[in-house]
């Protein structure tokens, strides 16, 4: 006993000495102000974030941005909330588009337009692409800095098209053509299934409503208030999901799961067409063995008008409660990433959309789009169509859960457990409860 | 039994203090916190809290999806427990025979326990994936039925049960091997002399003698399946298709950490805790009577 006591005393003393030593190590002269930046980007995209940060850190001497990956999008958001509650939030946090309403109403953020005003940093907001900036603005003011934005497009296997006797330079433009091409692909043995989809709710429900200029929810898709109800169980929704369920039976459509789990269906050549985020162009360019190209989303044609598609991805939110000196570094970093040159670099490196018109124009005049026509598909779809209130985006509380509910019901519909109408009615009823709950949470 | 008496009055309390501290900090405090949360409507950032009484509970009890998750939990926990305990008993019965290379067999049998649930999920995902999995490929030669767990609920449930049972197999085997080795050789030899075959020896001697272990493992596997089977489900099905593999603990996670509905999540954890405590008490009350302790 005595002995252990002595040794533990010794250990304590050693610890104390060690502690003192750590304190004695001189801090680097003129320490830079650290800006903490939490994000959710992995692999190649994570490397691109680190490169971007490095470029900023080397471009000036006062601030050092420290990027830290906190896991998936939901994990990053949860971590930021926990940190905020313990008063140790990062300066900047990357939040996916479905978390927008939650962040806006949280009272925990400093809107980007206000930050720039406080720091007297001029940003030409008018130069930003409307469908991107609209998604994240309130009363015409930008709340978070668009970072990685994409929109769903159609990918198709040119080799398989050739084999099936289809013109490999012409992607299908209507859903009727998707059906015909799908059947031809299967009949000729060029593919086992016609097409598959990634992010089912985003590509097949949210974007289909915008693309056909139909409302997704009341109150201008939620932009005009919290008292919102979904409208996806109307004619277009029922028609589209009913058709997908019918196609599922003869393999014209092959459901491949949520998020990106269906990617292998296209990459392996199993399905000849694939509707997924435009941000996959980079990955497909490296990882796909056959010839492929892209086209705009298929459309049902008359009587539905054609609008633009909507975006997905994430933005950077600035957390409230930091000293003005640190906010200056945050503001300079956000200004840096929105500059034309950085935007062009970001787009070419990652495949995400460039968010300023000047960057897009430079990419056009620099023949980037001529050489990489597939990278232009998403821009064309977002900017050349008619922007309407139905296509400006979605502003819903509890949106993460709502997406989950919709995708759960889509699976019930595709499995034949429910009709399209039943499934969508159930999705709407459940989502409306969640919207009510969110409105109640945010009332006082 | 000899009673141990401490000379110092405070020493025994001091000795149990660390364990109590751990229990309070990691069990009682979070449990109380959940209970508190369950009575409030909480904004995602936790800054606005409104007392709503039992609203969160009554909402859950009026939600068919919640009942579905309760049913799923019982199917899942029952399936995992039966499969992993039964398979472990059979495997241990074989691994206590006198055979060549016994040590190697035993090591291999214990291995799966060293694999993290999420990793086990990924392994099963690769084997069973409808697009690129090995098993569906071989099954397609035998039957034209599509084992597509992305759309078929029962296939998905079978898959997560199999994966979870597999991860827990090694743990159960370790206990059974120890139990079977503790059976006196004389008893077995006597049975041998009396002409009992291997099956009779198993049912008449081995099974009753390891019944305390079986009982312990059933309770433990149940609790494990209810509480800690999150990794496999998150990695493989994420609760889908529809809500067919959404067990209570996964719904709790989704509502709380993805949906940021902390009040409902708190209420769900209170219900789950009450249920698991109740289940364990029931098992001790009724099942233990049938257990023979030697």
CATH class of the largest domain in chain A: Alpha Beta
The best one-word shape of chain B is: globular
Structural class of chain A: alpha/beta
Sheet-strand content of chain A, in percent, reads 5-15%
Overall structural domain count of chain A = 2
**Helix and strand pattern of chain B:** HEEHHHHHHHHHHHH
User: How large, in whole angstroms, is the Cα Rg of chain B?
Assistant: 23 Å
Tell me the strand percentage band of chain B.
under 5%
| Straight-line N-to-C gap of chain A | 60 Å
CATH architecture of the largest domain in chain A: 3-Layer(aba) Sandwich
Overall number of domains of chain B = 1
CATH architecture of chain B: Orthogonal Bundle
Q: Which CATH class of chain B is shown?
A: Mainly Alpha
| Low-confidence region ranges of chain A | 1-5
CATH homologous superfamily name of the largest domain in chain A?
Periplasmic binding protein-like II
Written overview of the protein:
- The complex is a heterodimer of chains A (444) and B (294).
- Chain A is α/β, with parallel strands linked by helices.
- Chain A folds into 2 domains: 33-150 and 312-365, Periplasmic binding protein-like II (D-Maltodextrin-Binding Protein, domain 2, 3-Layer(aba) Sandwich); 152-309 and 396-441, Periplasmic binding protein-like II (D-Maltodextrin-Binding Protein, domain 2, 3-Layer(aba) Sandwich), CATH 3.40.190.10.
- Helix content of chain A is 50%, strand content 14%.
- Chain A has 20 helices and 12 strands.
- In chain A, strands 1, 2, 3, 4, 7 and 12 form a 6-stranded mixed sheet that branches.
- In chain A, helix 2 (43-59) links the parallel strand 1 (33-39) and strand 2 (63-69).
- Chain A is globular and about 70 Å long.
- Mean pLDDT of chain A is 90; it is low at 1-5.
- With 294 residues, chain B is mainly alpha-helical.
- Chain B has one domain (54-290): MetI-like (MetI-like fold).
- Chain B is 70% helix and 2% strand.
- Chain B has helices spanning 11-37, 55-61, 64-95, 102-110, 117-128, 134-142, 153-181, 185-193, 198-209, 211-227, 230-236, 248-258, 262-286; strands at 40-42, 49-51.
- Chain B has a two-stranded antiparallel sheet with strand order 1-2.
- In chain B, strand 1 and strand 2 form a beta hairpin.
- The longest helix of chain B is centred in the first third of the chain and has 32 residues, at 64-95.
- Chain B is globular, with a radius of gyration of 23 Å.
- The mean pLDDT of chain B is 87.
């Amino acid at each position: 006993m005595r002995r252990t006591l002595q040794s533990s005393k010794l250990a304590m003393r050693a610890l104390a000495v060690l502690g003192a030593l750590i304190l004695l190590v001189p801090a680097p002269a003129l320490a830079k102000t650290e800006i903490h930046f939490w994000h959710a980007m992995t692999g190649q995209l994570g490397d691109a974030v680190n490169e971007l940060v490095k470029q900023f850190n080397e471009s000036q001497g006062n601030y050092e941005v420290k990027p830290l990956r906190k896991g998936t999008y939901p994990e990053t958001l949860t971590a930021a909330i926990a940190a905020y509650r313990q008063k140790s939030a990062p300066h900047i946090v990357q939040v996916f588009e479905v978390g927008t309403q939650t962040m806006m109403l949280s009272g925990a953020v400093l809107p980007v337009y206000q930050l720039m005003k406080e720091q007297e940093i001029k940003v030409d907001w008018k130069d930003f692409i409307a469908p991107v900036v609209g998604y994240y603005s309130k009363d015409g003011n930008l709340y978070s800095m668009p970072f990685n934005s994409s929109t769903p497009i159609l990918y198709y296997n040119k080799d398989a098209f050739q084999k099936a006797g289809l013109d490999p330079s012409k992607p299908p433009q209507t859903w009727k053509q998707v059906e015909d091409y799908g059947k031809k692909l299967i009949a000729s043995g060029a593919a086992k299934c016609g097409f598959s989809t990634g992010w089912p709710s985003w590509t097949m429900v949210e974007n289909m409503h915008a693309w056909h200029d139909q409302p997704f929810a009341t109150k201008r898709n939620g932009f005009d208030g919290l008292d919102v109800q979904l409208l996806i169980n109307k004619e277009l929704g029922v028609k589209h999901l009913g058709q997908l369920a019918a196609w599922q039976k003869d393999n014209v459509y092959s459901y491949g799961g949520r998020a990106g789990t269906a990617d292998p269906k296209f990459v392996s050549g199993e399905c000849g067409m694939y509707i997924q985020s435009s941000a996959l162009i980079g990955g497909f360019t490296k990882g796909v063995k056959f010839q492929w190209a892209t086209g705009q989303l298929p459309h049902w044609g008359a009587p539905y008008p054609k609008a633009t598609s909507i975006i997905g991805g994430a933005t950077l939110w600035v957390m409230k409660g930091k000293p003005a000196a640190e906010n200056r570094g945050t503001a300079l970093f956000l200004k840096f990433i929105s500059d034309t040159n950085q935007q062009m670099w970001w787009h070419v490196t990652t495949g995400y959309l460039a968010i300023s018109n000047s960057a897009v124009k430079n990419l056009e005049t620099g023949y980037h789009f001529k050489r990489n026509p597939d990278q232009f598909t998403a821009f064309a779809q977002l900017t050349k169509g008619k922007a309407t209130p139905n296509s400006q985006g979605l502003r819903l509380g509890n949106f993460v859960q709502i997406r989950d509910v919709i995708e759960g019901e889509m699976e019930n519909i595709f499995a034949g457990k429910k009709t399209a109408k039943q499934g969508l009615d159930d999705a709407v009823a459940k989502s409306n409860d969640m919207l009510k709950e969110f409105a109640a949470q945010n009332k006082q | 039994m000899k009673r141990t008496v401490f000379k110092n009055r405070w020493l025994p309390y001091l000795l149990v203090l660390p364990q109590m501290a751990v229990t309070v900090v990691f069990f009682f405090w979070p449990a109380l916190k959940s209970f508190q949360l369950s009575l409030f409507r909480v904004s995602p950032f936790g800054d606005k809290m409104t007392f709503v009484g039992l609203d969160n509970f009554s909402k859950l009890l009026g939600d068919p999806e919640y009942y579905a998750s309760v049913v799923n939990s019982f199917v899942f926990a029952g399936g995992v427990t039966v499969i992993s305990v039964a398979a472990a008993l059979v495997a241990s019965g074989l691994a206590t025979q006198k055979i060549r290379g016994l040590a190697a067999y035993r090591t291999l049998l214990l291995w799966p326990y060293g694999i993290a649930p999420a990793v086990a999920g990924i392994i099963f995902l690769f084997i069973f994936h409808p697009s690129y999995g090995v098993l569906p490929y071989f099954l397609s030669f035998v039957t034209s039925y599509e084992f597509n767990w992305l759309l078929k609920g029962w296939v998905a449930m079978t898959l997560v049960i199999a994966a979870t049972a597999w991860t827990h197999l090694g743990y159960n085997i370790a206990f059974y091997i120890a139990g079977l080795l503790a059976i006196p050789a004389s008893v077995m030899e006597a049975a041998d002399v009396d002409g009992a075959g291997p099956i009779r020896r198993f049912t008449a001697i081995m099974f009753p003698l390891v019944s305390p272990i079986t009982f312990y493992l059933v309770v433990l596997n149940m609790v494990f399946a209810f509480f800690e089977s999150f990794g496999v489900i998150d990695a493989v099905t994420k609760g889908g298709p529809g809500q067919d593999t959404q067990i209570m603990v996964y719904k709790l996670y989704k509502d709380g950490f993805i949906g940021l509905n902390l009040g409902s999540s708190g209420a769900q954890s209170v219900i789950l805790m009450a249920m698991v405590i109740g289940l364990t008490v029931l098992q001790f009350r009724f099942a233990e009577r049938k257990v023979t302790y030697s």
